[in-house]
Design goal:
The complex is a heterodimer of chains A (about 230) and B (about 190).
Chain A (H helix, E strand, L loop, with lengths): L5 H11 L10 H7 L3 H25 L8 H23 L1 H7 L10 H11 L4 H31 L1 E2 L2 E2 L14 H18 L15 H5 L4 H4 L3 H5 L2
Antiparallel strand pairs in A: 1-2
Helix pairs in contact in A: 1-7, 3-4, 3-6, 3-7, 4-5, 4-6, 6-7, 7-8
Chain B lengths: L2 H11 L10 H6 L4 H30 L8 H23 L1 H7 L2 H4 L4 H12 L4 H29 L11 H16 L7
Helix pairs in contact in B: 1-8, 3-4, 3-7, 3-8, 4-5, 4-7, 7-8, 8-9
Classes of the chains: A mainly alpha (about 230), B mainly alpha (about 190).
Chain lengths: ~230, ~190
């Protein structure tokens, strides 16, 4: 996988290893901010910016970071970038900033970012890491927009703020509230199971209801730092 | 806002997992049985309360006086990582039984977004020390309640005849969705 070209890295992030649909990383911000397609874009692009530059910086420094200080160094790089993005968004896009609220500083603990730093940027050259971050970030953005669009259409009858359903449609507003996020996400994972699509929730760990299959499924706590690097190998 | 209102609000009304979506990953990953999930919940209560105390003190007495407010994300994540390390070493030495019971969950709490989420919420709402500690503790208790309830339900439905597509993660998420609707009932408690 290390020999792939830059465009293949982008395709890999967008489709083959889509961080949300396939790797099942970053579910917390996903559920929280996808009340509309537009919020999905905001969250996706800000995460992409952090991901691209954290991959680039960590790949540049990968030979000078001592192995034992790897995680603290990565966390500091990511947290610094998130602070920069946070201040830029507060200054230039105040509407998006207030809509996303606390979830912008929480990009620091998004498993996708530390996961890619650990699994990819620490082992690859800066250029390909840059494109890996770009692909993963765009894949995350596409996934967020897709979920946001479904919730927005069902929950308020609009898409990107434009009314697309007839006025007679009564919006099912639970879909833009907390339970709707869970329902859409559950439907999505069920669909992946049904279609036997590659995903962290089905894949080769077929006995899903067994204890062992459960333990490594989209568990950010294990994938964020340790499990994640082994999973993407 | 008084302390009781903060406590009820962050524990039940805007439950950290079911309405703010923080800590979803461990919520779904570790909720296979009541015992483990209670252990995880206990560890989270301890770490979030400690993190609220330390983060609030550092924010009020170091970051604000020196005008370093913008560094809060970096400082908080480092505090949390260091705190989890210290707690882990302390428990390993002084409380080996509890340490063994919590096992792997203790170090992994660093990446639980609920911990950082609480610290940032405290700073953004400019809560004072007492309010921060109460908010942290109540949020963590809300997490404990939610994860133990989910584990209890999962123990009950484990032998049910679940449609093939919904086996595994999807049915757990549907369960969480229904719990989330149930927790909407608490919104009448406020105002």
């Amino acid at each position: 996988m290390n020999k792939l070209s830059n465009s293949e890295r982008i395709f890999n992030g967008l489709w083959k290893e889509n961080p949300l649909f396939v790797l099942m990383l970053g579910t917390c911000p996903t559920l929280a901010v996808t009340t509309s397609a537009f919020n999905g874009i905001g969250m996706g692009l800000s995460s992409t910016a952090v991901l691209v530059f954290s991959n680039l910086i960590i790949a540049l420094m990968r030979n000078v970071i001592p192995d034992r200080l790897r995680l603290p160094a990565e966390i500091v790089v990511v947290a610094s970038l998130v602070t920069v993005v946070d201040m830029l968004m507060a200054g230039f896009t105040p509407a998006v900033y207030s809509a996303l609220g606390i979830y912008i500083p929480l990009i620091v603990v998004n498993c996708i970012i530390l996961g890619r730093a650990e699994a990819f940027a620490m082992k690859n050259n800066p250029i390909i890491s840059f494109f890996d971050g770009l692909g993963m970030g765009l894949g995350f953005t596409v996934a967020l927009v897709a979920i946001g669009a479904v919730r927005e259409i069902i929950g308020s009858g609009t898409l990107f703020g434009f009314h697309i359903l007839p006025a007679s449609y009564v919006p099912c507003s639970i879909f833009i509230l907390a339970p709707g996020a869970f329902f859409v996400f559950a439907g999505l994972t069920a669909l992946q199971n049904k279609l036997k699509m590659p995903s962290a929730t089905n894949g080769d760990a077929r006995p899903l209801d067994s204890e062992s299959g459960e333990a490594c499924m989209h568990n950010c706590m294990t994938c964020g730092i340790k499990g994640c690097s082994t999973r993407t190998k | 806002m008084n302390l009781i209102a903060i406590a009820i609000s962050s524990c039940l009304v805007s439950n950290v997992v079911l309405s703010q979506f923080l800590g979803i990953c461990s919520f779904i990953g570790v909720s296979t049985d009541i015992k483990t999930s209670a252990g995880m919940g206990g560890a989270v209560v301890f770490v979030i309360t400690m993190a609220s105390i330390v983060a609030s003190l550092i924010y009020d007495f170091v970051l604000i006086p020196f005008g370093l407010d913008y560094l809060k994300t970096i400082v908080f994540i480092l505090i949390i990582a260091a705190l989890v390390q210290i707690v882990e070493m302390f428990m390993h030495k002084c409380m080996p039984a509890l340490y063994n019971a919590l096992g792997i969950y203790l170090p992994l709490i660093t990446t639980n977004c609920a911990v950082l989420g609480v610290a940032i919420t405290n700073a953004q709402n400019s809560y004072n020390f007492a309010e921060s500690v109460v908010n942290g503790f109540a949020t963590a208790v809300g997490y404990l309640i939610a994860i133990v309830l989910l584990a209890g339900i999962r123990e009950q439905i484990v032998d049910n005849d679940i449609p093939h597509s919904f086996q595994g993660a999807p049915i757990v998420i549907v369960t969480a969705a229904i719990m989330s609707i149930a927790f909407f009932g608490f919104s009448g408690l406020m105002n």
